[in-house]
Amino acid sequence: MYAPLRVEKLATEHLNIFIVIKPHLNQNNSIIMKRTELAMKYFPMKSEAEARRMLSRWIYRCPELVDEFKKISPYFYKKKELSKKEVKLIIQYLGDP
After folding, report:
1. Rounded to the nearest 10 degrees, how much is the dihedral formed by the CA atoms of 66, 35, 58, 50?
2. What is the distance between the alpha carbons of residues 19 and 74, in angstroms, rounded to a whole number?
3. Where does the pLDDT of residue 64 fall: very low under 50, low under 70, confident under 90, or very high at 90 and above?
4. For 23, which of 1, 29, 37, 70 is 20 to 30 Å away at the CA?
5. E strands, 24-80, in order
């Protein structure tokens, strides 16, 4: 059984962005977003693999963001899926996609 798509509003200082979230359920049944989906929003003209690599570079070049992720999960660099909180942190530190 598939859950329906939903639109999530993430407000920032200068812009309100709406991200379509394809709900994928993890072990805790919380809705998550794949890292590739978010990377493609930041780099729509790149291939999925290249967009993912570029997003990872941007994340690791921001030490404050890396520290925030380490507080949430020490295995963030291995995760392929992002929680709503992680997506908000990325947008907060890296800006709007």
Report:
1. 150
2. 26
3. very high
4. 70
5. 24-25, 31-34
